[in-house]
TrEMBL record:
GO molecular function: alpha-amylase activity
Species of provenance: Streptococcus ictaluri 707-05
GO BP terms, alphabetized: oligosaccharide catabolic process
Name used for this protein in its record: Glucan 1,6-alpha-glucosidase
Top-level taxon of origin: Bacteria
Glycosyl hydrolase family 13 catalytic domain segment(s): 27-109
Source taxonomy: Bacteria, Bacillati, Bacillota, Bacilli, Lactobacillales
Length: 183
């Protein structure tokens, strides 16, 4: 699920957000700027109804209304859609959990943060003789990365990793983990 696009303070139920808004407005902050902040960090994002399906109220309730509004994107982003798509985030998380349970290097390996572009998070894990590199584009824009990973073995990915490795360019939200070839 994504954060709800709260438009005005009338949409907000979170007492911390409302208290923050009262103080910010008293200090001259514009409501539009304030709402940008609340949309990003307000607790109501985690409190909107679960989006189970494309049905009324996202399949969450058969009542007339819900205590907070359902995100308007529930037609596209919901549990039923995720379960029907083998490439969805649901199955990616299933793979990540299984990998975490199976692979000791994810927990025990030495960790080293790699130097990257601002919107790319990358690190390597060294475990015994093996080296693993994890690269994630944490933005909605293409990002470049300079690390040469030719010949790497793909462990898990949500992208065409061959293309990403050749072009050294990540599409929005791309992520992969590779085992680096021994030198």
């Amino acid at each position: 699920m994504t954060n709800y696009p709260f438009e005005t303070l009338d949409d907000v139920d979170d007492i911390e957000s409302l208290n923050y808004a009262k103080e910010a407005l008293a200090n001259g902050i514009k409501e539009a700027d304030l709402m940008d902040s609340i949309r990003k960090v307000g607790r109501d994002n985690a409190r909107t109804p679960m989006q189970w399906s494309k049905e009324k109220h996202a399949g969450f309730s058969e009542g007339q209304s819900t205590w907070l509004p359902v995100n308007p994107n529930y037609q596209e982003i919901n549990v039923a859609e995720a379960l029907a798509n083998p490439d969805s985030i649901f199955y990616t998380y299933q793979e990540l959990i299984a990998l975490r349970k199976k692979e000791e290097w994810l927990v025990e390996g030495d960790y080293q943060l790699l130097s990257t572009a601002d919107k790319v998070f990358a690190y390597k894990r060294q475990f015994g003789e093996d080296t693993y590199v994890i690269v994630v584009n944490v933005s909605d824009q293409k990002q470049s990365f300079a690390k040469d990973l030719a010949g790497a073995q793909v462990i898990i990915t949500n992208t065409d990793v061959t293309k990403a490795l050749e072009t050294k360019c990540l599409e929005p939200w791309d992520a992969f983990c590779v085992k680096v070839a021994k030198q």
